[in-house]
Amino acid sequence: FPFLRCLTWIISFFAVTGNLAVLVILLISHRKLTISRFLMCNLGFADLCMGLYLMLIAFMDHYSRHEYYNRATDWQLGPGCGIAGFLIVFAGELSVYTLTVISIERWHTIINAMHVNKRLRMHHVTAMMGVGWGFSLLVALLPLVGVSSYSKVSICLPMDIDTPGSQVYVVAVLILNVVAFIVVCYCYICIYLSIHNPEQSSTR
């Protein structure tokens, strides 16, 4: 579909340039690196990787247009698909994790707005993001060592569920993403209630 091809290039271009701009602005700024700016750097990097994945898929689509059947084996079983798969899984998990940490940090800061000593410090958030990076790297590396596979489909997602280990991997990743979504929703519901409920001492 030409429309989807065009849209893919547009989205990937803006994803790469937009997140590069975010990272450059945040990193070269003379202002102090706050918790919020640190988390935005992590989110920008994750989304930059997602844009690079989409650009790689768009390039391969253009390269193999009308003759994918001649290049499918080389692409899906070669290093290109492995790199693309690693990028999208790493980026996706790091992005979801970072959004979850941002939500928790906002919730914690607003709930404890009048208690400065209870706020999260940079070393707390740095440790949380260290765990997130480790987790995202682990999830992205597992399909490269035989737990599921990036070569099952042409867009290089880990959709191989032929073995019990692969099934556990895919289900675990899906469940963790659902849990992250629930946590984010819970945090913003709590923020909304804390702001709109005048009976709470934190609001006063």
UniProtKB/TrEMBL annotation:
One of its GO terms (biological process) is male gonad development. It is found in: Membrane. GO terms for cellular component: plasma membrane. Pfam families: 7tm_1. GO terms for molecular function: G protein-coupled peptide receptor activity; luteinizing hormone receptor activity. It comes from the Eukaryota. SUPFAM superfamilies: Family A G protein-coupled receptor-like. Keywords: Leucine-rich repeat, Membrane, Receptor, Repeat, Transmembrane, Transmembrane helix. InterPro entries: GPCR_Rhodpsn (IPR000276), GPCR_Rhodpsn_7TM (IPR017452), Gphrmn_rcpt_fam (IPR002131). Coiled coil: none annotated. PANTHER family: GLYCOPROTEIN HORMONE RECEPTOR, LUTROPIN-CHORIOGONADOTROPIC HORMONE RECEPTOR. This is Luteinizing hormone receptor.
